[in-house]
Amino acid sequence: MIPAEIIQHKRDGKALTADELRFFIRGYTDGTLPDYQMSALLMAIFFKGMDLREISVLTELMLTSGESMDFSHLNAYVADKHSTGGVGDKVSIILGPLLAAAGLAIPMISGRGLGHTGGTLDKLETIPGFRTGLSLDEFRQAVETIGIAMIGQTADICPADKKIYALRDVTGTVQSIPLICGSIMSKKIAEGIQGLVLDIKTGNGAFMKTAEQARELADHLVRIGQDFGVKTDPVFTSMNQPLGRFAGLWCEMLESFDCLCGYGPADTMEVTYTLGSKLLFQAGLAADEAEAIELQQKLITDGSAYAKFREMIHNQAGDVTILDDPTTLHQPACRQDFTAPVSGYIQAMNTYRIGLATVSLGCGRLKINDSVDPTAGMEFLRKIGDEVSEGQVLIHCFNSDSGKLQEALSLLPGAITIGPEPASHQLILK
Amino acid sequence: MIPAEIIQHKRDGKALTADELRFFIRGYTDGTLPDYQMSALLMAIFFKGMDLREISVLTELMLTSGESMDFSHLNAYVADKHSTGGVGDKVSIILGPLLAAAGLAIPMISGRGLGHTGGTLDKLETIPGFRTGLSLDEFRQAVETIGIAMIGQTADICPADKKIYALRDVTGTVQSIPLICGSIMSKKIAEGIQGLVLDIKTGNGAFMKTAEQARELADHLVRIGQDFGVKTDPVFTSMNQPLGRFAGLWCEMLESFDCLCGYGPADTMEVTYTLGSKLLFQAGLAADEAEAIELQQKLITDGSAYAKFREMIHNQAGDVTILDDPTTLHQPACRQDFTAPVSGYIQAMNTYRIGLATVSLGCGRLKINDSVDPTAGMEFLRKIGDEVSEGQVLIHCFNSDSGKLQEALSLLPGAITIGPEPASHQLILK
Q1: B4–A167: do the CB atoms touch at under 8 Å?
Q2: Quick check: B36 and A4 CB within 8 A?
Q3: Scanning every residue of chain A, which has its alpha carbon at the shortest distance from the alpha carbon of B6?
Q4: Sign for the pseudo-dihedral over CA of A263, A267, A270, A276
Q5: A263 touches chain B (CB under 8 A)
Q6: ipTM of this model?
Q7: Backbone dihedral region of B273: left (phi > 0), alpha (psi from -120 to 50 degrees) or beta?
Q8: B161 is catalytic
Q9: Is domain A3-49 in CATH 1.20.970.10, yes or no?
């Protein structure tokens, strides 16, 4: 096979055969095909897409490039949750322990902050001692013994995806539905799960800007899940404003503790319960959403979700004593408020700009090797629909680098639209 | 500047700024930008195109990546001809000496066979001793002293184009009008010419399949020529059948000798005269096409075109004595005829297939390091519109490798359409 001809087939809108895809993905992974041919193919896929058969083959090739977990011997429903990413989205940290407390097994592999969005791993790593880099054996053992582990991607799982993702990141080919689909699903399927719930975010702070794109991505993910025997349910949620009270690192952990103890903000809990209900229903532990929400509320109220969270932290070498007085840790050295320039109702929040401002504060990375500031974050005191007066504090910003704080604040003017009309925000989309 | 962001700009259909293009082209040429980012950008350009300003900047960057010639001190109109490539197209070999005999200075840099088409350099190199690899100094001196030199691309001229072209060749990004335009024009402008005539070929044996694509390419080339002060005239000719009596290597040289001595086939001469007329008119040596054709015919009849050709061969170390008995050289060891399967009129010739068959014979290359067979070629005894009887010889095939001869013949059935209706072929298109 001639690589340039395979590239031309995709360039000209043809579906690639399984043989062509295998030749290209295997060749690239083992180093016999050069980066420059893979990046040309990725850009052609960006423009011409892939049909479901091609995505399924791509997923299989990524999956079989590495190891897969097998939890079929467990007497538990094995499941995971994936979010397409947003600002203030700490739901994995809450939902994982909550579902493990319900008896599900949760082998969760998460990512770091990407672009303007935060990353579960970066947040978890603010817990002193917490290890996100377990070996596959440690990961397996954690899931088998306590029902949950939350780790980062390892070299053993989907190395083809890892290599291709790194190339996509530097060649403008991240935003391609078939490539996103193959990348997400290969890693999830490798976890050995039976069920998956997807938080598909849309809006001005999401990677998918329109409901149509989100719907297309969800359709593809669900059908690839079916192909590989993973029951997959999508939930569509809005990223037209940050989720919850905080966006940042340690501050999001504090919000997560609150959520697990029954004091979480309504929006964070609504997304958590909606996603959790899908998996509890899949697992046969609830007959409908109302029953599933009731079960989740009970597990929070009786302390078992929070106890499971402490158990997981301890099991991954995290310092659980810090949870007894969490507000003493990671105190920001610098603080500044962003206030309302006029009076009125908040009409809209430019969540992408706000996300970029959190990255400027030190919550995320522009380059892969940038370091993060665990003290950094924002507290959102007012959101869409709230009535505000001129000079009232809208966002409380904090970190430990005054230069970066100013840089972040310089991004905020104009990011919040205030007008005379009342406004509303729909969180869960149908 | 962040390379991935520049790629994304083009991917999203934006015009790149001069700074962005400079950053990318210079960075790639000096090795600071990796080929995988360049190939992603090239594929994005393939899909999203470039406006004339971008193409002009691209051309300038390629041009200034290397040396340029300057013939402004010569008391002659300095000009060249470019063809977009075809089967049996030996016009450069005839037109160069013919125009030099008319007093023009012709610094011609040509290419090798590409895909299914033949290459001027491969044909010239069948002359024993002939050097196509002159240094820039030798090239300059040849043009100054005898008015013509025909060489291959050197490392000094447009190295950025050379590096980018090699990448395009292996990443499915050759067929992009802005990239073709930048590549052609940078090299031609580097020759230090005042005038350029373009043979834009269309039809089933051309790279541009439709009149619309050909027109677009021509428009772009002419306007880039204008930007750089090179008077550029396009001529549109058909590649719906091979040009002339022969397609191959030494056999095309023999046809070229015939043309320069006044015995050329009508179609080859028509294209030669049409192209030549444009440059003679530009140079002020003819008032109109009729006068220009008369001048060219005179230069052939009086032997001065042929004499200039001998002078050029001698000047580039070729063995001129071979011209006195040219049919003794490069005699093919194998010959076989392709005959008409039915009686009727030739309706169409699949010139792309015929071109591929000449490559199979040994006239061109599939890979850059393939060697060519100087004895290889085809003689076309009948063309579109000719009446033929079943079993009559249509194409005479020859080379010095019987296996390759069979391979070439296997491509020919179906390549010539014969039907009951008379048919015609328009060579020069308006």
Answers
A1: no
A2: no
A3: A172
A4: negative
A5: no
A6: 0.85
A7: alpha
A8: yes
A9: yes
Rounded to 5°, angle at Cα A105 from A101 and A143: 105
- Tens of pLDDT, residues B302-361: 999 999 999 999 999 999 999 998 889 999 999 999 999 999 999 999 999 999 999 999
Which pLDDT score is estimated for A1?
79
* The model's pTM: 0.87
Question: Is A278 one of the catalytic residues?
Answer: no
State how far residue B24 is from chain A, nearest Cα, in angstroms: 13
- Pick among B8, B14, B24, B36 to test the A interface (most A CBs inside 10 A): B36
Q: Considering chain B, what is the average pLDDT of its residues?
A: 96
Residue B171 sits at the chain A interface (C-beta within 8 Å): yes
Does the beta carbon of B365 lie under 8 angstroms from any beta carbon of chain A?
A: no
DSSP states along B351-419: HHHHHHHHIIIIIS-SSTT----TT-EEEE---TT-EE-TT-EEEEEEES-HHHHHHHHHH-TTSEEEE
| CA-based end-to-end distance of chain A | 46
Kindly state whether A7 is in contact with chain B, defined as any CB-CB distance less than 8 angstroms. yes
Q: Does A35 touch chain B (CB under 8 A)?
A: yes
What stretch(es) of chain B map to CATH 3.90.1170.30?
328-424
Summarised one tens digit per residue, pLDDT across range A276-315 is 999 999 999 999 999 999 999 999 999 999 999 999 999 9
Q: Which CATH superfamily is A328-424 part of?
A: Pyrimidine nucleoside phosphorylase-like, C-terminal domain (3.90.1170.30)
Sheet holding A195-202: strands in order across?
Answer: A79-83, A195-202, A231-238, A428-429
In percent, the amount of chain B with pLDDT more than 90 equals 91
The active-site residue out of A116, A123, A168, A188 is: A168
Taking the CA of residue B403 and the nearest CA in chain A, the distance in Å comes to 22
CA distance B153 to A426: 63
Fold of A79-324: Pyrimidine Nucleoside Phosphorylase; Chain A, domain 2 (3.40.1030)
Give me the residue from A40, A167, A170 closest to B172, CB to CB.
A40
Q: Measuring CA to CA, which residue among B271, B272, B265 is closest to residue B245?
A: B265
Contact status of B5 with chain A (Cβ, < 8 Å): yes
Read off the tokens for A353: 């700009």
